[in-house]
Amino acid sequence: MKKHNFSAGPSILPQEVLLKSSEAIMDYNGNGLSLIEISHRSKDFVDIMEKARALALELLGLEGKGYKALFLQGGASSQFLMVAMNLLEKRAGYLNTGAWSAKAIKEAQMLDDIYEVASSANANFNYIPKGFDIPSDYDYFHCTSNNTIFGTQIKDFPKTDIPMVCDMSSDIFSRVIDYSQFDIIYAGAQKNMGPAGTTLVVVKEDILGKVSRKIPSIMDYKKHIGAGSMFNTPPVFAVYTSMLTLDWLKSKGGVVGIEEENEKKARLMYSEIDLNPLFTGFAAKEDRSNMNATFNLTNENLKETFDSMLKEAGISAVNGHRSVGGYRASMYNALPLDSVKALVEVMSELESKA
Ligand SMILES: *Cc1c(COP(=O)(O)O)cnc(C)c1O
């Protein structure tokens, strides 16, 4: 039986995408060859790469606005360094909203001065700081749109004239925002777009070429853009599966269509957390993530019972991250509303038992 998959990452993909990508492993397009045993320079794969890049810009509403989409390797984690390599001349400002922001800061600090413009470390990152200043002489401002571990999400992005960089690994393509307010967006595929192995980077071309340092080729966005995202062998299977997911998203009405679904799921989830006296939410209400809902039992003695009920109902991977504890329900684009219904049912059943 297929489980209700609440995994935080790598995470659920649409069934039809899994089916199509598994077929391509055996025989791509009836060619008599597997997708993963053909040249990345073949027309078949170049077409896949170009379609994936175009779909990414189209779905974000960034076509014809001076942006390029790249599918790179090394995960979102390598972007922590790559962003700084390409943009950092003197100093940059970072918003620290959790473990991933902190890692981004740590990597960039190897190159130059990084200032935390604000941090929610004082409350174990259960909220998003607001009302801070971003000095206009910084090279760029960096933030994390959705904090996968803590279950918080930036709803209103700060206004600034300096380039804005955003790690959107766990909520890209999930909601309608003005994506053109950012100059670089990056996202590891394995949360809301595809399998692990590729990272989408969307770069506004005119912000590049302004630092004095020499940038190693593999870290240079300009080199990757010039090579059509084929500077070296791309992760062909991850790019293909991401392309299929983006195509699936387009057929669901794109970001507008999926946002509606995501809001339904989040409303259902959080109303159970708020109304059921056995649970409390972890994140501050106004900053709650529509992707990762974090919550705790009010009575830890019920843990064993609750866990076995979850297991019985086929609900998988709702255990919280070790730095927060409790539970985390990740409700990415591909998670059906029915899975949230199943989880909420178990939560209310626990209430009637207790
Ligand atoms: C998972 C995650 C990362 C790390 O991604 P990798 O691809 O494993 O390097 C970075 N940022 C956020 C917000 C994440 O959720």
Description:
The structure is a single chain. The protein is of the alpha/beta class. The protein has 2 domains: 237 residues, Aspartate Aminotransferase, domain 2 (3-Layer(aba) Sandwich); 99 residues, Alpha-Beta Complex (Aspartate Aminotransferase, domain 1). 36% of the residues lie in helices and 17% in strands. It contains 10 helices and 14 strands. The strands form 4 sheets. A 7-stranded mixed sheet has the order 2-10-9-8-5-3-4, with helices on both faces. The protein has a 3-stranded antiparallel sheet with strand order 11-12-14, covered by helices on one side. A hairpin with a 4-residue loop joins strand 6 and strand 7. Helix 7 packs across helix 8 and helix 8 packs parallel to helix 10. The longest helix has 22 residues. The radius of gyration is 21 Å and the shape is globular. The two termini are 28 Å apart. The site of pyridoxal-5'-phosphate has 12 residues, from helix 3.
Task: Write a brief caption for the model.
By secondary structure, the chain is of the alpha/beta class.
Spatially, the strands of the biggest sheet line up as 2-10-9-8-5-3-4
User: What ions, cofactors and ligands are bound?
Assistant: pyridoxal-5'-phosphate
Main β-sheet description: 7 strands, mixed
* Helix/strand/pairing category: alpha/beta
Question: Topology of this structure?
Answer:
Elements: E1 4-5, H1 15-26, H2 43-59, E2 67-72, H3 75-87, E3 91-96, H4 99-108, E4 113-119, E5 141-144, E6 146-147, E7 152-153, E8 164-167, E9 184-188, H5 189-192, E10 199-204, H6 221-226, H7 236-251, H8 254-275, E11 279-281, E12 292-297, H9 303-312, E13 315-316, E14 327-330, H10 337-353
Parallel strand pairs: 1-13, 3-4, 3-5, 5-8, 8-9
Antiparallel strand pairs: 2-10, 6-7, 9-10, 11-12, 12-14
The structure holds pyridoxal-5'-phosphate.
